[in-house]
Amino acid sequence: MPLTYALIIFELVVLVLSISLHDCAQAWASNRLGDPTARMMGRLTMNPARHFDLLGMLIWPVLFIFRSPLILGWGKPITFTPRNFRNPSRDEMLATLAGPAAQLLAAVIALIALIIVRHTVPGTFDSLVIASQLAMRNLSMGTEGLPGIFPLILFLYFCILVNILLFVFNLVPLPFLDGGKILMHYLPFNAAKTYQSMSLYFMFGFFFFGFYIIQIAFIPIMTIFKILLFSL
């Protein structure tokens, strides 16, 4: 049981940092593209307090983290003022995509760091195997005699796991997610309004079936990362 709680803390910390990265990246991109709204609201920071959303950063993750090693979350939406963008039609989409792009980049950086550790620190291959199992709450793996660098290995593996999951989650084309905002941008005006008005129904549907949809993309991407991690 203490190991389970330690894993939960590790994952929650990574989740909060990853959500903050997503929101900070969107604020940074919008500022670079001419809209300082998010920066002026204090969102151009990795400080989780500036991005905190009670449901997305606390209630939802805590409700599910004891049931599954794969958890989702979100921060307060980043506010854009489209007329400030140099090219409103293009730049708002780029600023929106900056969030998922930052999470994919974070997963790639964590992967590279783990590959470097595997080649430079003796005996870390077995630690990587154990970390990959513990991250999925497989507690049958022995944890005795692990090297002092193991917490870093586990943290980096969680960085891959959580950021890929959030990358896929945010690109699901639902009105309240980045993917939905991009989709609505290309829909006819009336169709976009109708789609947005159905947000509540989509949210209820996502609550029951969304995770199965996310796994369709998450599992292949995560498999590619694991193959690269253990073969390069």
Q: What's the arrangement of secondary structure elements?
A:
Blueprint: H1 2-32, H2 37-40, H3 54-65, H4 88-120, H5 124-135, H6 150-170, H7 178-186, H8 189-197, H9 199-231
Helix pairs in contact: 1-4, 1-6, 4-6, 4-7, 4-9, 5-6, 6-9, 7-8
Note down, in words, how this protein is organized:
The chain is an all-alpha fold and 232 residues long. It has one domain (2-231). The chain has helices at residues 2-32, 37-40, 54-65, 88-120, 124-135, 150-170, 178-186, 189-197, 199-231. The protein starts with a helix and ends with a helix.
What is the N-to-C succession of helices and strands? HHHHHHHHH
Rounded Rg: 19 Å
In DSSP terms, counting alpha (H) and pi (I) runs of 4 or more, how many helices?
Answer: 9
How would you characterize the largest beta sheet? Answer: none
Strand content: under 5%
Low-confidence stretches: none
Overall pLDDT level? 88
**Ends: how far apart?**
34 Å
Secondary-structure-based class equals mainly alpha
- The total of beta strands comes to 0
Shape: globular
Q: Please, how many domains?
A: 1
